[in-house]
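[Discussion] Sanity-checking designs against the backbone

I'm trying to build intuition for which residues belong where. Below is a structure token string of 328 positions. I'd appreciate it if someone posts a full sequence so I can compare it with mine line by line.
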């Protein structure tokens, strides 16, 4: 196991290097650049220098006067030294802005993912064990509706019903107008109240695919020979389902759970934008649109690291959920 982990880590470092280079090249080729925008604004001021002069000066200031390959290695050296630079759009150090917004998205991601598992796994098992029944059809319709609904449409329906008609929640934002006058406990519940609709949106939109995934894998296992043998021996049906069938269903499920690690930190771009939630998804989108290369490079590299780590965790967990699986 130790040899396998070391080998995978070295391979992951090599993959990460090329991923970082591709990301850097793509960001350098963005059609919209923050530097160009600032140079254009300064050139329009009275008695100012020309656009080309401002552009040359700003590129030298931000280290963008180098070619792509020298610029990449210069950025790479700073990255591994812990110098992530300053955000061009947010005008603060990259790591400061990242820490400011990522944990809100992480909390939303963890809560929504936990609810997805609590809803999808039991319903998927029920649908599989009652195949072609009314219960199976009802669960399948609910799952397909969640998969088919666009995020912006479902979020708009929730806001129309619960914000405009019933007036239970605010339309936008993370806090109420009188948030600063509240006690710390009231501030906590105020933020939690504003996160209800975004989390419901994330759960309903995402739970359908996981539910279908559990149902499909459960049906495949229930039709296996060893399940028929267990039933023929007279084992209790609950023991057959939860001790034998569900344990083997966990193997493909672990892959999905391990691969979901980056999603906990990536944020929900559309949902955060619709509800005006200042999370990492909305922040990264604003940075990319504004040509904020330092922040975008850090965010995308962070996501690449989490993706590689999630794949490694999935491979290791194989041996945990199934003793037959051994890593050679």
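Best answer:
Here's mine. Compare freely.
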């Amino acid at each position: 196991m130790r040899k396998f982990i070391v080998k995978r880590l070295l391979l992951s470092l090599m993959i990460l290097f090329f991923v970082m280079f591709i990301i850097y090249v793509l960001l350098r080729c963005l059609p919209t650049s923050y530097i160009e925008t600032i140079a254009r604004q300064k050139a329009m001021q009275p008695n100012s220098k020309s656009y080309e002069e401002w552009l040359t000066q700003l590129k030298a200031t931000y280290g963008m006067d180098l070619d792509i390959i020298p610029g990449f290695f210069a950025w790479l050296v700073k990255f591994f030294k812990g110098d992530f630079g300053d955000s061009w759009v947010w005008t603060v150090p990259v790591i400061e802005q990242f820490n400011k917004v990522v944990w809100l998205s992480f909390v939303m991601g963890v809560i929504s993912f936990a609810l997805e598992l609590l809803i999808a796994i039991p319903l998927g098992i029920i649908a599989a064990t009652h195949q072609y029944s009314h219960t199976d059809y009802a669960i399948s319709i609910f799952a397909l509706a969640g998969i088919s609904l666009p995020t912006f449409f479902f979020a708009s329906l929730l806001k129309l019903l619960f914000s405009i008609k019933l007036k239970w929640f605010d339309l936008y934002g993370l806090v109420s107008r009188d948030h600063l006058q509240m006690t710390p406990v009231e501030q906590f519940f105020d933020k939690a109240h504003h996160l209800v609709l975004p989390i419901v949106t994330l759960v309903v939109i995402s739970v359908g695919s996981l539910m279908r995934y559990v149902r499909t894998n459960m049906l495949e296992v229930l039709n296996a020979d060893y399940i028929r043998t267990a039933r023929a021996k007279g084992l209790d049906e609950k023991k057959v389902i939860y001790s034998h069938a569900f344990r083997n269903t966990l193997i493909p499920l672990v892959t999905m759970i391990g691969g979901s690690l980056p999603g906990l930190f990536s944020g929900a771009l559309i949902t955060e934008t619709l509800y005006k939630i200042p999370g990492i998804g909305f922040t990264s989108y604003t940075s990319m649109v504004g040509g904020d290369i330092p922040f975008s490079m850090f965010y995308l590299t962070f996501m690449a690291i989490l993706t590689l780590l999630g794949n490694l965790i999935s491979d290791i967990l194989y041996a945990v959920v199934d003793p037959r699986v051994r890593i050679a």
